[in-house]
Amino acid sequence: MIQRIAILGTGLLGTSVGLALRASGFSGSISGWNRSKAGAEQALAMRAIDSIALDAIEAARQADITLLAVPIYATLDLMEQLSTILTPSQLLTDVGSTKGQITAAAARLYNKPDRAAFLPGHPMAGKERGGAELGDANLFRNAVWLFTDDPSAQRSATGAALVQAWRELIVQMGSRTIDIDPARHDEMVAWVSHLPQFTATALSALLEEEVGDAPELKDVGGRALREMTRLGASPFSMWRDIAATNTAAIEKALLALEQRLTYLRENLREPALRQEFEQANKFRSGS
Amino acid sequence: MIQRIAILGTGLLGTSVGLALRASGFSGSISGWNRSKAGAEQALAMRAIDSIALDAIEAARQADITLLAVPIYATLDLMEQLSTILTPSQLLTDVGSTKGQITAAAARLYNKPDRAAFLPGHPMAGKERGGAELGDANLFRNAVWLFTDDPSAQRSATGAALVQAWRELIVQMGSRTIDIDPARHDEMVAWVSHLPQFTATALSALLEEEVGDAPELKDVGGRALREMTRLGASPFSMWRDIAATNTAAIEKALLALEQRLTYLRENLREPALRQEFEQANKFRSGS
């Protein structure tokens, strides 16, 4: 039933979705729009999309399903712009990393009898660097793709069918889908995704200051150091919107880690250190 | 010139050294002692050693080179015990993760005309879990093996030749050797090794408390979470001695990270966040 998909934003995620759709057998058209032309041309060259759209709004107007794969504030902007343009027989969905504001905007602007359907989504997959050139058809394999859909959404039969079709495409890309409340989503990703990122950023920034002028020390740190700072390469452009739209939950998680580090520092020669290691061991043994 | 090597402690490092020695062509005998018999039997079964020594002191007495591959306080104990037993034509060396106390003990007890030679060493290689069964002939390939030798060491010709022979064996195992002052060593590893470890321990312990009862959330976190908590599996038994023998340097590094996290938390919606990300990006782009 899906003939045309539009991908707005052909960065790492948008390009990977295009590649994964093709790899899992989707045979309709995929048009792609990107803020910088070079990113769209790269995605086209990789056959993640089969045409470049010069106008995001026009691309969405012509598609059955439009995927917003841009940063969160750009997603919210496009949601506003498209809300009165799309029809009830079209679906808009996204990959934004925080879901509170996007899900609220969806309730306000979509999922009503005279509006298009909106399905808020968040694939738990990525790389520490972005860009179409890193696009990967297998990025979503064995990943979790979260949805924070609104149970009270009012959709046309076509809108509801497109939601179902998109969920099936995600499964065909190799992801496991989980439905979760948006507030719970944002609280949870603050712990398991945003806290690890900001920890790596702080650690990398600190180490750049302390040992950045002695590159041979990075070799000395070996695999452990490489892994603990890999996310230090993550782009601000993506994390700015996450920090701004999930501030309270991230503040809470960071404060908890600061306190935990202080406790550890004050107990380096005390029996409490053993308990901290045992508690940490438990987290890993369960995984 | 080396006929007999003794490895005291056949855990991950001791067993890996035995395997790496064999893989790089060492054809003399390798005897192994371990506090728990099972660890020595495992190393023997893997051919990392070719005989089990029941007594550590006796094994060292019979060897040209003895490698201490036990935790730091056990290393210091054995250094005391062996100092009056070994002869000037024997070499004792170690793999301890902090070098201040061990190098000071070496100056006090070894490297004198009537004493054996001692070469303080520290391979920057390991795994988050220990044990002979994880022993790996390639563990030291492309790793850095640090030495904190004393330029004023007084060694017999045989002692000096054994030091040179051991350094060559390390290179044959695939490691790059770097000589460094022991105080500088301990300060440096506090940043590039101990800080990442204690950060992973604090993060893992915190997450066990916050989301430990919801194992599906670990999947949600994906590769980023796995990498940032992998070191959470590290055993207290090894890190206790590191924390106790490098306390001041680790305290300093932990405090600096706490302050950095606080700064980041207080600037989640401020331009300073961009600078933190750019500083972190710099650390990674140099690597």
From TrEMBL, chains A, B:
Q: Per the database record, which ranges form the Prephenate/arogenate dehydrogenase domain?
A: 3-287
InterPro entries xrefs? 6-PGluconate_DH-like_C_sf (IPR008927), NAD(P)-bd_dom_sf (IPR036291), PDH_C (IPR046825), PDH_N (IPR046826), Preph/Arog_dehydrog (IPR050812), Prephen_DH (IPR003099)
Transmembrane stretches, start-end: none
The GO terms describing molecular function are: NAD+ binding; prephenate dehydrogenase (NAD+) activity; prephenate dehydrogenase (NADP+) activity
Which processes are annotated in GO (biological process)? tyrosine biosynthetic process
PANTHER family given for it? PREPHENATE DEHYDROGENASE (PTHR21363), PREPHENATE DEHYDROGENASE [NADP(+)] (PTHR21363:SF0)
According to UniProt, the name of this protein is Prephenate dehydrogenase/arogenate dehydrogenase family protein
